[in-house]
Amino acid sequence: MLPMRFELRLLQYAQALAQHAGFSRAAEALGISQPTLSRGIKELETRVGVPLFHRSRLGNELTDFGRVFMQHAEGLIEGARDLEREVDQVRGVVTAEVSAVLGPYVVDAIGERIAGLFTVSHPDVRLRLDMCDPAAVARAIRSRSVDLGLAEDTVNAADDEIETVTSLAPIRGWVFVRSGHPLASRPGVTLTDLLDFPFAQVVMLPPRLLKPMLAARRPQAGGPALPFPALECATVRLAIGAVAHSDAFTFGTLAQVRHDLAAERIVPLMQPPWLHSSWSIVRLRNRVMTPAMLALVASIKQAHAAVLLENEELSAKYH
């Protein structure tokens, strides 16, 4: 039996019809005539041997098999687009570029170093770094709006469409409070003592960090409970600023707040063993790693190694 051959053109026709649910709108989006689209869909269904679409009150919808077929087809279509982009970059038709989305803690901890290292080593490649909540990293990768993601690995661990490129060694985190905080000079401070004060949170905590904190909260004897978190901040710098002017506490790495520590605006209070980074570089499963993507991974690993070393040096000073 001869193998089935699917022209990329026909797959793109099916993708457009699935997206627009109507031959007229799909043909317009593709820049072809409606009869051409109709013939193309009919040819594709003939080659497949089963219908891919059926008419409904909502328009032309994928059949059950059609949905499975298009999941695979879209991977081929996007792979072809990636290949075209790479060829154009090699030919000099377009500027080589690469993009990544980072979680807020990652941006503050190593974002600047990543951007600097990559720009110095690859001045001919355009780099775009975006920031979003760790839970949104997978969505950005699945939509192919970015090439790579770097954020909390436990958030995306169960996502079958996301593949880990490499995991980064953990960076130890600390609890920070302002100088002069009621707990700053108290010996033997526990996590339960700490949770009597407001928590300034940057992003929603993953379960591995949330569970020990919730377990350590003191039962309320009466009156309203302290909100948890008491402050929700968009960036680490905002959280640190709030902590410096209140009795709130927050998390971070020593390198992130080294200037605040030197100015004695804040002090490290404790270093729970469960408080550390757990970051991975991720991509869409089976997506080909382009030279620009590999170069960005190298810059991320280099930036992370430098920050890891800096944190260990500072930890020896403040431990």
- Give the percentage of residues in beta strands: 15-25%
Radius of gyration: 26 Å
| SSE topology string | HHHEEHEHEHEHEEHEHEHEHEEH
> Segments where pLDDT lies below 50 for 5+ residues?
none
Instruction: Give the beta-strand count.
Output: 12
**Tally of contiguous helical segments:** 12
Overall pLDDT confidence: 87
Largest sheet: 5 strands, mixed
CATH class group of the largest domain = Alpha Beta
Structural class: alpha/beta
Spatial order of strands in the largest sheet? 4-3-5-12-6
The 3D shape can be described as elongated
What is the number of domains? Answer: 3
Please name the fourth-level CATH homologous superfamily of the largest domain: Periplasmic binding protein-like II
Q: Compute the separation of the termini in Å.
A: 71 Å
From the coordinates shown, what is the CATH architecture of the largest domain?
A: 3-Layer(aba) Sandwich
Q: The CATH topology of the largest domain, please?
A: D-Maltodextrin-Binding Protein, domain 2
Helix fraction? 40-55%
What does this structure look like?
The protein is 47% helix and 17% strand. With 319 residues, the protein is α/β, with parallel strands linked by helices. It folds into three domains: 8-90, Winged helix-like DNA-binding domain superfamily/Winged helix DNA-binding domain (Arc Repressor Mutant, subunit A, Orthogonal Bundle); 95-171 and 277-318, D-Maltodextrin-Binding Protein, domain 2 (3-Layer(aba) Sandwich), CATH 3.40.190.10; 174-270, 3-Layer(aba) Sandwich (D-Maltodextrin-Binding Protein, domain 2), CATH 3.40.190.10. The strands form four sheets. The protein has a five-stranded mixed beta sheet with strand order 4-3-5-12-6, sandwiched between helices. It is elongated and about 80 Å long. The relative contact order is 0.14. The mean pLDDT is 87.
